[in-house]
Amino acid sequence: DADSAHSAESMKWKIKRESNDELRQRFVDRTVQQAETIGLTVPDPDLKWNEERGHYDFGPIDWDEFWNVVKGNGPCNRDRMKARREAHENGRWVREAAAAHAAKKAARKTAA
């Protein structure tokens, strides 16, 4: 949270009710249980249940990897962008139909 530019201010104004660290911990606690339920293993060798805290402990976050993904250089970025372009192309007919309808409606209004 110390690296988050606006967290302290957002918490002060009660825009944000939980810190990034608290949200991350809750996410890890829930996700590990879900992954284990369906037979997956979370790829963190430091991951272990901490009985005393009642939460999972996990290893350090690779922030360079995180920001690389955020900047669009993640392992699934090409697939995600391809799917987005395909969805945009597949929706072209809807945009064209909406534009034609709007033009027709405007023409009727002008003629009246």
Would you spell out the secondary-structure blueprint of this structure?
Blueprint: H1 7-12, H2 20-37, E1 48-50, E2 55-57, H3 63-73, H4 77-90, H5 92-111
Protein described:
With 112 residues, the protein is mainly alpha-helical. It has two domains: 1-61, no CATH class; 75-112. Helices cover 62% and strands 5% of the residues. The protein has five helices and two strands; from the N terminus they run ααββααα. It has a two-stranded antiparallel ribbon. The longest helix is centred in the C-terminal third of the chain and has 20 residues, at 92-111. It is elongated and about 75 Å long. 1% of the residues are buried. The mean pLDDT is 93.
Please estimate the helix content.
55-70%
Q: Roughly what is the average pLDDT, rounded to an integer?
A: 93
- Strand fraction: 5-15%
Structural class: mainly alpha
Q: What is the string of SSEs from the N terminus onward? A: HHEEHHH
Any idea what the shape is? Answer: elongated
Question: For the report, how would you describe the main beta sheet?
Answer: 2 strands, antiparallel
Spatial arrangement of strands, main beta sheet: 1-2
Radius of gyration in whole Å, from Cα?
Answer: 23 Å
Question: Low-confidence stretches at least 5 residues in length (pLDDT < 50)?
Answer: none
Question: Counting H and I runs of at least 4 residues, what is the number of helices?
Answer: 5
Alpha-carbon distance between the two ends: 61 Å
Q: Domains counted in the coordinates: how many?
A: 2
